[in-house]
Fold this protein.
Amino acid sequence: MTSTETTQTGGKFTWRFTTPVLVGPVLNPINTSMIAVALVPISRDLHVATSVVVWLVAGLYLASAIAQPTMGKLADVFGPRKVYIVGLVVVIVAGVLPNIWHDFSAVLVARVLIGIGTSAAYPSGMALIRDQSLRLDRQTPPSLLSGISIAGQTTAAIGPVLGGVLIGAFGWQSIFLVNIPLAAIALITTLMWVPSDKNRPARTGPAPTLRDIDPIGIVLFAATLASLLVFLLDLHVDMLWLIPVTLALAAALLWWSLRHENPFIDIRMLRRNGALSRTYLRMLLIYFGAYTMMYGFSQWVQGSAGYSADQAGFVQLPTAVLAAVTSVMVANNRRLKLPLVLSGAIPLIGGVLLIFLHASSPLWMLLLVAAIFGVPQGLASVSNQQAMYRQAPGEQLGTASGLSRTAVYLGSILSSAAIGLAFPHSPTDGGLHVLGIAIAVIVGAAALLALVDRSLNSPKSERVGEALQPK
């Protein structure tokens, strides 16, 4: 990002501004992925059943899915810098908790707090970038947007590797401690170098109030997601009553959002903005495949193929490397259709290959399958973020960015349900084959959705962030 490393007085984004904006958003993806290789060690050390330890994943999913748009809404209304700072403090507290309270409850609480705290970073960061673009009266550099995506994608991909190394050397508690230095760096640089919210570009309309937050909409949204998550993670006949409850809550959320002047979830905007709604749907489908591979494959490698936690992390190293390389290669790409079609088509091939794996498969075959999933992760991360940034209304960018992460976590929640169905007691070859079929079908649908989406046929000259400029 050399083009951005000039002084702000010259109308450019400086490295001082970009540093905290890039560091904070890596906290959520790295925590999402590191836990993949920690579930088995935590289960053994704390004597917790597999069906219970999965709530460490689900707890962060649920907290993040709800908190991402909530933090984005707060950032839009009260200022992204304030929200960002509070979130980073929460992360630091959560990183300490499991190391002073050695109990599963503490680990679960820490994961929920991490989900809430890290959820402030991405939507706040996107809102900070928008404010800086307007403040400097210039377009947002594509390299900065891609940098956020690359940083998040790379850390998510290396999470299992890093988690395996930390667990092997220091125990599973170390995956929580790693949050402290990262959050501290982001916190200090934000306090030093990010402009105060008092210097935000002028906001049109009346001063923000509690009504602009729409607490009723937030509660209905949270209740709907919580009900859905509990049902998906416990798919038994005696939980079927949650289906009408979830539908009723969703209907109430829809009714409220259509009648509220400034709703938490702007249904009217999503209905008008079909391109943005389709981007959210693609993200849900694509990340269903990514997280099913990350968690399901990792559990199978440890539970069926017989590898240790650190070895399982290294098996997914090709995913990390190729995801990072691909993200860099498409960082400045302006055409979105081909990358988004490929981000769904390539995992379809990977899903088919999973069907041919078994516990005695050679290591090279496991590495090959892991590598195949790296390229689409890089393509999807950069291209979907650029699509969302172009399509989202500027005044709602924080909320829209948060909703994009909610779409990712809905894909993760569905992934957890699929893994639970495929591995009801322990990972098996047959269960892995079922997951391979699910990945091929669902992520293949994302490729088809991108292929027929005319809104992705943007001219090559379209500049990222153009929708954010004042009319």
In short: Confidence is low (pLDDT under 50) at residues 1-10, 460-471. The chain has two domains: 13-197+264-458, 214-263. The longest helix spans residues 274-303. The CA atoms of residues 134 and 201 lie 7 Å apart.
